Batch of 3 targets.
Target 1
Amino acid sequence: MRRGLVAKMAVATVAPLAAAGGIAYAAGTFHAVSPHSFDPAHTFLVSSGWINGIGCPTDAKTSSDGAHLDGHARDAGCPTGDPRDPHNQGLLLNKSGPSANYAAAQAELKDVGGIQLKDLGYDIRKPGGDRSDPRGSHCGAGAPRFDIVYSDGTDVTTGCNSVNDAQVTDVGEGWMRIRFTPPSGHENATVKKIFILSDEGTDAGPDHFGLSVLDNIDVNGVIVGHGDKGDTS
């Protein structure tokens, strides 16, 4: 898929999402991740959305008898999380079928316009700390990836298994935390939009899974790990 073209069309097709609970956020205050499917031919082979119970448990409660909350679930892959996420939501990005299908699962990071990007990342549901491991979520060089659109029109992408601009910082039983180095030469550039795109399907190895679960999207130290709505397509 022509990644740059998808990103440009995504700018036009993702509708704004109202702030949760009517809270007013200042411009440049990252506070939400809005999922949306890009599927202009209506193939119905892509989906994206926040789903309860599939996120990384930072300090979730468990029950040994079905009647009392008497334990905790934690994964070292997410040492910090979103305190506004009581339902342990995760962001599912799915593409079934071939990568060549002109469609993508995607999400827009809201109200990042005007910032200078210093820190960017997410947690991904994948065991072992090896991004090339076929187990768990798809984590390819091109997907899921951040697509950063700068105010000067520059469009920069960085993928889950990018060699030089990403590192795993924390590893747990079922999750890992990835942080991306801001693109070289853009350290002081102003951001216009940021998207997460996933357009590699079940023909993409080594996992041939075409599906990723993300959580705790991080922009400059602000973490968002929940959504108010699912897929808006």
Target 2
Amino acid sequence: MGNIGHVAVVGATGAVGKEVCTLLEYRSISVDRLTLLASERSAGQIVQVADRAYPIETLTENSFHGVDYAIFSAGGGVSRSFVPLAKAAGCVVIDNSSTFRMDDDVPLIVSEINPHDLDHHQGIIANPNCSTIIMNMVVWPLHRVNPVKRIAVCTYQAASGAGAAAMQELSTQTADVLAGRTVEPKVLSHPIAFNLFSHDTPIGEDGYNQEERKMIQETRKIFHVPDLPITATCVRVPILRAHSESVNLTFTHPMSARQARDILSAAPGVRVVDDVVANRFPMPIDATGLDECLVGRIRQDVSQPNGNGLELFVCGDQIRKGAALNAIQILEYLVKPPRV
């Protein structure tokens, strides 16, 4: 891949923004010019990308003149204010926030699932929710072979999903609890050390919180199945980085655990970790820092005696594949679509 023009990273000092910068080096992506943008309080900080030091510049309404591609990882408020300005300046935007995900004219992309939806973008491309990506990395390969009729998922989401400040809060609270000090949550709504709680996003009239609705609505859009039955329960757990999910699937036709294991073993971006003898299965500590999502505990759902149900357990790095890597893969596709 040759040089890809002028790229801007918005939110370059956050957890996902930093990972984007790391991946530009890791994947040997050459850019003619790289601009790192953040709030005024971060201006002047130095970020190392490859063998070059880049100063953080203040994000302004004029930041996107001459920029070809921008990766936004600075939250919904920033995206609402600045993505339209970037698009108006002729920049193609890859946005990690939820702001534009459900807009009809904005493709919602998981690079291994629906990259051809990028062919119809109109200047804004949405990165799905991290939990949605991690789940569907393993559901999609199975769905292609045997259409899924229902998904039931429970998530165990790491502090990383709430950003770098939440990760630091988990570390600080853990030390405080072990030292017998009082814990006072500041970033998250409840104590996270040695605790877990329902994902603290707003709850709608249907009783589902915002995170759960994201998984339901986004999966339907990515799969192009608007009425796919999905239910989700999302929980925050005291894990520093990498989300875990228990996924229950109902298929159109019977599918054995062996068939599923064979399909997933060949799926891009997926690694099967299913060692029954050693009792070793996906763990967030193993998924941290990996490009792949780990899947295991692949077994028949005994509550579905017709053989149409499977149980899976998946772990994926929320910052990596759940956000930064998927954005980078979208950028790579935009620059050089694979030959078919």
Target 3
Amino acid sequence: MDVVTEVYRFYRGYGGEKGDFGFSEEGLPLVYMKAGAGRPVLLAQYAMHAREYVTAYVALKQIALLENKPPEGTVYVLPLVNPDGVKKCIAGAPLWKANARGVDLNVNFDARWGTGVQNKRFPGPSDYIGEAPFSAAESAALRDFTLRVAPDMTLSYHTKGEVIYWYFYQDGARLPRDRSLAETAARETGYALAEAYGSAGGYKDWCVEKLKIPALTLETGAEELSHPVGREHAEEIARQNDGVFAALLNALRRKTEKI
């Protein structure tokens, strides 16, 4: 069973609140599953880059745990943000990152869009910024869902490197707040903090710059692994991330001041 089929099969059997938040360029549903209730609200999204679909397996492991032991707060899990791209990847384009139209979703957000050093102006496997911010169906749907549920923080699961990106030109009180939350995630996972100089237009970047909320990109899987990281590594990645949701929700509860 391929990962896309497995995600939808798991989704159909999920007993908690669930739904779709839009459709891909090729008409596949973009699904979410929810666990818990009340504040704080954490939104975690996975498989935005097609070749990083191992994170979708991680998402299923994480939401299964949350279904059995609901968090103190709310967690939204979006396990497969780029189903078309994942299908293309597993069908024979193993290094494909983009969606079906060759748009790299993680440079298609309105956060200094088009200024990244690796940005491309034409469709392809990676780095194409699209015709405009949110021109891709998937990034527009993720934007709208994020605005609707108003999370206190977002997590983006990618591969690889076992590092956490958290910075995108924050200043003032938001800078130590966001770094502190990144350090919480680093302690739980064992990943190192890092900064992605020269990148722009990502979902994390948009959350930080436009929504003014903390947002982390977790690059899971050891650096020496090859893309696409195999399913056999999902168990270890999930284990490394076992305590992340609870730790961040606890930290967010302590940071009650609005910045």
